[in-house]
Amino acid sequence: MSQLEIKDLHVSIGEKAIVKGFSLTINSGEVHAIMGPNGTGKSTLSKAIAGHPDYTITGGDVLLDGRSILAMQPDERARAGLFLAFQYPSEIPGVTIANFLRAAVQARMAEGEELDATGYYKRLYSKMDLLKIDRKFTSRAVNDGFSGGEKKRCEILQMAMLEPKFALMDETDSGLDIDALRIVAEGVNAMRGGTLGILMITHYQRLLDYIVPDHVHVMWDGRIVKSGDKSLALELEAKGYDWVKQELAKA
Amino acid sequence: MSAVPDTHSSSDFTQERFAAHLANRSDLPAWWLEAKKAAWNQYLALPLPARTDERWRFSNLKGIDLAGFVLPGQPAPHTPHLPDFPRVAELTFSNRQITARTALPADLREQGVIFAPLDEALREHGDLVRRYFRKHPVALGSEKFVELNTAFCSTGALLYVPRGVEIALPFVVEHTLAGDHMATFPHTLVILEDQAKATLVEFFVSTETETAHFVSGVNDLHASAGAHLTYVGVQNWSDATQAFHSNSIAAGRDARVFSLNLHLGGRQARHESHSRLLAPGAHSEMLALTVAHGTQEFDQRTLQTHAAPHTSSNLLYKNVLLDQARTIFSGLIVVEPDAQKTDAYQSNRNLMLSEAAEANSLPGLEIEANDVRCTHGATTARIDPDQQFYLEARGITPQHAHELLVFGFFEEILDKLTDDHLHAALTRFIQSKFKS
Q1: How much is the pLDDT for B436?
Q2: Given CB atoms, is B320 within the 8 Å cutoff of chain A?
Q3: Left (φ > 0), alpha (ψ -120 to 50) or beta: where does A78 sit?
Q4: Has residue B435 got a pLDDT over 70?
Q5: Which of A42, A122, A158, B136: CA 20 to 30 A from B362?
Q6: Over the stretch A141-190, which tens digit does the pLDDT of each residue have?
Q7: How far is B359 from chain A (nearest CA, A)?
Q8: How many domains does chain A have?
Q9: Which span out of B67-81, B212-226, B404-418 was modeled with the highest average pLDDT?
Q10: What is the CB neighbour count within 10 angstroms for residue B109?
C-alpha cells in the first residue's frame, strides 16, 4: 500500500499565488477526480507535484509514503513512482518512442543491470495493442506530428510501461473525440484494480462516464471546496459551476 | 609535449621541398607532374585569404598559418579507434602512406569496379583520373589551399563504378595523421557511371587530440545519368588542426547525390561544398552535422548551382555549439537563366548549448530564372525547457534528457542514412565525442 499525501499546498507562478492550501490524501487503488472551472489551479497543482521548475511551492508539503518529495528533482520524483500525464505533451523530434521509453525504463533499473530487450518489446507491444496503437509508432518521434488523440494514447502507453504508484492525469480528455476517449479510458481502466492511485483532473464530467472515480472533489480558487462520490460530478454537470460559487458565497 | 624539432622553424612548402616531392613521383604520368607544377605555381601566386574577400567574412584569418608544418616521414605508430560497420573494401592511409587495404571482392573487380590509392590509380588508370580530376573549378574561397593540395597530394583514393553496377555496402577510406606539425593533402575522386550506385565513407582523424596539423583535403564526386552516389565524410582532426576541405559534387541527368559531412575536430576547420546540378532530374542532398566545442571555429561555405531545368537540391546544415565555439554558415543558391522549375532548399539550424558560443549564418539566393521554387532559412535555438521537463518527468536524468534532445536534433539528418549499421556506428561515434 502506498499513499500520496498533499498537505496544505501553496503554489505560485512568479509572484502570483495559484494553489492556496490544497489538501488531499490518495491511497493505492483509489481514483480521485478533481473538477473545477478553468484557471482554478488544477494544472498548476499537477505540474507542481511533478516538479516543474516554473512553479514555486511556497507552503505545505507533498508526501509519498510519508516522505516529502519537495526536495527531489523531477526525474527523481518520477522514479519514486509519480507520473504526470500531460495536458499538452511536448513534441520531441528525432527521439523515437522506442528509445525514449527504453531510456525511461532503464532509468529505473539498478546500476549495471541490463535491459532485457526481448521482454521489453514484448511488454511494449502488448500495451500498444491494448491502446490500439500501431506498432509502427515505436519508430516515430515522440508526439512529433501526432494528432491530439495519438498524443493522449501515447501518454497512457508511457504510464502503462512505467507502472507508477500514482498518476496525475491532467485533462486527459481534452482534445479527444468520443472514440479516442473510449480507447484511453479502456487503457486506464485496465490499470485499475491494482495498486495504482489516480488523481484525474478534468473540466468536464464526460471523462468520468468512462473512468468512474471513487471520489470527486471540486477545486475553486486554488483549493478543494467540496468533496463527494461520483454523484457530485453529476450534480455539478446538472447545476454548473455557478452552483458551487453560490454555495461558497452562502458559507 | 615533446621539444619542437628544428624543422619547425620553416615549413616544407618551399620550392626545394616541392621539387623533392616531384622527384619522388617520377614514375607517375607526365600530365600529372605537369599539373602539380602548375598547381604549385598557382599556390605561390595566389594570396592568402584577405579580409576584403566576402567569401571569408567572419573567418578568423589570423588563425591561418602554414609556418612550421612539414610532411610526415613515417606512418603513425597506432591507429585511432574508428566506428565499425559492414563495408565492401577499405583503404587506410597513415601519415601520407598507405598502410592497409582490403581486396576488392572478385565479382566487383570483374565488373570493372576500381577502388585504389591515388598513386596506383594514376599509374594504372591515368586517363580516367585525368578526365575527372578537378574537372570543375573551385569557387568558394579556398583556391590557394586546393592548389597546395594538388601540388602535394599523394594519398587519397579513386572509386570508379561502371555503368549499371550497384554496390550496397560502403567503401571506406581512412586518413590518419600523427605527430606534431604534420601536414597532409588527401584527394579522393569518386566516379559513378550511368545507373551505378555506391557509397563511400571517408574518415579524417588524428591519433592525438593536442598535436597541431595542417590539412587541405579535396573531394571530387561525379554522378552520371541515373547514378546514386552517397558520400559520408567524418572529420575528427585534433583540436589544434587547421583544416581546409573542399568538396565538389557534379550530378548528371536524374542522378542523385547524397553527401553528409560530420564535423567534429579541428581548431579552425573550413568546409566548402559546391553542388552542380548539370542536367534535368539531377538532385543533390547536402547534409552536415557539427559539434563545436571549446574555442573551435567551424567555417562552412556552400553553393548550390542549378545549371539545368528541373533540378533540385536540399541543404540542411545543423550545428551544436558548446563552450566558446564559433560557427559560420554561408550558403548560396544560384539558379542559372535556363534552370526553370528548379526546386532548391537551404537551411542552417544552430542549437546553442552555451551562452558564450557564437553562430553566424549568411544564407543567400541568386535567381536568374523566373519559374522556380527556392527557400532558405536559418534558425538559432536553445534546448526547449518544456521538452527537457517532459523527459525528466518520465524519470530520465537531466543529463541523459539533454543528450537525447541533442541527438534528437541530429537525428533528422542521421535518419536520412539508409544504411542502418552506418547510422548506428556514426551515432555511437558522435556520442563518444560528446562525452569526452
Answers
A1: 52
A2: no
A3: alpha
A4: no
A5: B136
A6: 999 999 998 999 999 999 999 999 999 999 998 888 888 899 999 999 99
A7: 22
A8: 1
A9: B212-226
A10: 12
Whichever domain contains A47, its CATH number is 3.40.50.300
CB neighbours of residue B345 within 10 Å:
18
Residue B111 phi/psi, 5° resolution? Answer: -80, -5
Domain membership of residue A38 as a residue range: 3-89+146-250
* Residue B202, strand partner residues: B173, B233
Give domain limits for chain B. 6-381
Mean pLDDT over B157-176 rounds to 98
The three grid cell numbers given for residue A3, joined into one nine-digit string: 499513499
CB B254 within 8 Å of CB B227: no
Q: Given a cut of 60, is residue B3 above it in pLDDT?
A: no
Q: Confirm if B316 and B347 have CB atoms less than 8 A apart.
A: yes
Query: Is A27 inside a domain boundary?
Result: yes
Cα separation, A229 vs A225, in Å, equals 14
Residue in B384, B392, B412 closest to A75 by CB: B392
Asked if B383 reaches chain A (Cβ–Cβ under 8 Å), the answer is no
- H or E segment at B422? helix B420-435
Residue B393 pLDDT > 90: yes
List Cβ neighbours of B355 (8 Å cut-off, separation of 6 or more).
none
**Domain assignment of residue A49, yes or no:** yes
Give the model's pLDDT for residue B345.
Answer: 97
Contact B405 A95 (CB under 8 A): yes
Residues of A in contact with B392 (CB under 8 A): 51, 73-75, 78
Which chain B residues are Cβ-neighbours of A50 within 8 angstroms?
393
What is the tens place of the pLDDT at every residue in A191-203? Answer: 998 899 999 999 8
Question: Which set of grid coordinates corresponds to residue B189?
Answer: 575522386
**pLDDT at residue B433, rounded to an integer:** 77
